[in-house]
UniProtKB/TrEMBL annotation:
Name the UniProt record assigns to this protein: Polyphosphate:nucleotide phosphotransferase, PPK2 family
Annotated InterPro entries: P-loop_NTPase, Polyphosphate_phosphotransfera, PPK2-rel_1, PPK2-related
Gene3D superfamilies according to UniProt: P-loop containing nucleotide triphosphate hydrolases
NCBIfam families: PPK2_rel_1
Record flagged with keyword Metal-binding: no
Domain Polyphosphate kinase-2-related, residue spans: 41-260
GO biological process, one term: polyphosphate metabolic process
UniProt keywords, alphabetically: Kinase, Transferase
UniProt xrefs under Pfam families: PPK2
Keyword Transferase included in the entry's annotation: yes
Any one GO molecular function term: polyphosphate kinase activity
Length: 279
């Protein structure tokens, strides 16, 4: 159902403009919305299989890991990716962290301090629900630190990610984009339904008012931190079914490129079968 691999189709290319993103589009997908649920189910199984393989291999010494970085404005669908995509995996091998407003302790350290503590261990898939990129997004938009402090962070992030990749972590970065109107609808839903109140934060409206500044900050983030070793992917996210399918494919593709197989037995299988039969 994909005419083009999502990792190729969605990869950020220098010159791409946030203002030009068609958030309703479904790049590379030529199936119909009615196919989405079945396909999502099938691809979740494939993701789960590869994720378990990564975890299994760490038991026999493979030290590689994967890090999914989720960025996007409120209601973009980050939580849905965690629940409906990553949630299909084996929790033993998943390390989920959401990054909110830093604590006093976190603020007393370098901005990457809390990030380093949350990195995936060998065999794990780390999931960052927001990330170190908040330190060049909300921090920049709200002047939480002066430009002399946030400006060098782009390069610091690149150096940091280069080190992660060199030590065996595959990084999958996704930036999810919804329209201002779609965000309004989703926020309205959160205010209408008691089962959604927990996702609502009055501050979301304040962030909404700063949309143009966020667009600029997202543009700078993409321009300056999309590297060959850790590229950004732009996910049109007005259609949740599409963003979920696309990110599932990005994860599957990244895991496939790790060229894994099930770890070989560390024992003589036939001998063990005979022993078992005899007891
Ligand atoms: P949520 O993801 O809806 O739970 O909201 C978390 C909030 O924390 C968002 O408004 C983020 O922008 C904010 N946040 C995350 N990281 C930082 C940071 N480093 N500095 C300031 N605010 C942050
Ligand atoms: Mg929120």
């Amino acid at each position: 159902m994909w005419s083009h691999e999502p990792h190729e189709k969605l990869k950020f290319r220098l010159g791409d403009k946030v203002a030009d993103i068609d958030v309703d589009a479904t790049p590379g997908f030529h199936g119909k919305k009615s196919n989405a649920a079945t396909l999502q189910f099938e691809r979740n199984l494939r993701f789960a299989e590869l994720q378990e393989m990564l975890y299994a291999r760490s038991r026999s010494g493979d030290t590689r890991s994967l890090l999914l970085v989720l960025q996007g404005m409120d209601t973009a669908g980050k939580g849905g990716i965690v629940k409906h995509v990553v949630g299909g995996g084996n929790p033993q091998g998943i390390k989920y962290t959401s990054f909110g407003k830093p604590t006093e302790e976190e603020l007393s350290h370098d901005f990457l301090w809390r990030i380093r503590k949350a990195l995936p261990e060998p065999g794990q898939i780390g999931v960052f629900d927001r990330s170190h990129y908040e330190d060049v997004l909300i921090v920049r938009v709200h002047n939480l630190v002066p430009p002399e402090v946030w400006e060098p962070r782009y390069d610091e992030i690149n150096t940091f990610e280069r080190g992660l990749v060199d030590s065996g972590t595959t990084i999958v970065k996704v930036a999810m984009f919804v329209s201002l109107e779609e965000q309004k609808k989703r926020l309205a839903k959160r205010l209408k339904r008691p089962d959604k109140y927990w996702k609502y934060n009055p501050a979301d409206i304040d962030e909404r008012l700063k949309w143009p500044l966020y667009q600029q900050a997202y543009q700078a983030m993409l321009d300056r931190t999309s590297t060959e070793y850790a590229p950004w992917h732009i996910i049109p996210a007005n259609r949740k079914w599409y963003s979920r399918l696309a990110i599932t494919e990005l994860l599957i593709e990244a895991l496939k490129r790790m060229n894994m197989s099930w770890p070989p037995p560390t024992f003589d299988v036939d001998a063990e079968k005979k022993r078992l039969a005899s007891v």
